[in-house]
Amino acid sequence: MTIHPGYSPKRETTSNSVCRLHKSLYGLKQASRQWYVKFSNTLLDNNFKQSTTDHSLFIKKSGNTFLALLVYVDDIITASNFVKVVQDLKYTLERKFKLKDLGNLRFFLRLEVARTDKGILISQRQYALQLLADAGYLACKPVNTPMKANLKLSFKEGELIENPSSYRRIIGKLLYLTITRLDISFSVNRLSQFLANPRVPHLKVA
Fold first, then answer.
1. How high is the pLDDT of residue 163?
2. H or E, element range at 112
3. Residues 6+ apart with CB under 8 A from 38
4. Which CA distances in Å does 16 have to 19, 40, 75, 76, 108?
5. How far apart are CA 114 and CA 147, in angstroms?
6. Tens-level pLDDT at each residue, the chain (206 residues)
7. Closest C-alpha among 103, 102, 119, 120 to residue 111
8. 142 Cβ neighbours under 8 A, 6+ residues apart
9. How far apart are the C-alpha atoms of 205 and 144, rounded to whole Å?
10. 177 phi and psi, to 5 degrees?
11. Alpha-carbon torsion, ordered 98, 102, 106, 110, to 10 deg
12. At what angle do helices 164-177 and 125-135 cross, to 10 degrees?
């Protein structure tokens, strides 16, 4: 970064002089990494263990107490079998970070979370409706199965799609939809086999 206009340094500077930061500034590309390092170290100092498969997941177990914390950019989700444990964690983090408690989780990465007497329900209803709207099938009629039985798809039959990125974008969105719609997993996996050279028949099935 260059020296800010109006700043008068104590020493003489040259045309290629730069500023040395004593701490990261919000907005710089290094800021998020520095924040994550500080945040993760704070959790590790409080007996959390970082997941080896997902580094954004931290877990803490003590007796019959379970506490999980998930970090996505600057959003944090906590889950525990005891409310007091979550409250104690908030108090610990608030001493080092500025936090804003948004209450019970309702929306996260286009996942809708609802609580009932029977448990927690996760859906992607709004995401699915938006996907249908983007594809122009919002008013289409539902079918009993996501793909016709014994449907044959070929790598060579049919014309190549002029803009394959549109097909790949649809398949990517459908893959994300399989988080809650396991019934379409086989069909989406079948269509994802043609991402390299998608053809018109593949797009029609999608």
1. 85
2. strand 111-116
3. 96
4. 10, 36, 38, 40, 45
5. 29
6. 566 677 777 777 676 777 776 665 556 666 777 888 889 999 999 999 999 999 999 999 988 999 999 998 888 999 998 999 999 999 999 988 888 888 888 998 899 999 888 888 999 999 999 998 888 888 888 888 888 878 888 788 888 888 889 889 999 999 999 999 999 999 999 899 888 888 888 888 87
7. 120
8. none
9. 15
10. -70, -25
11. -40
12. 160
Residue 26: C-alpha distances to residues 6, 21, 29, 67, 196 (Å): 21, 12, 8, 29, 39
Residues 6+ apart with CB under 8 A from 171: 188, 191, 192, 195, 206
In the block, which residue shows the tokens 């799609």? 161
Size of the chain in residues: 206
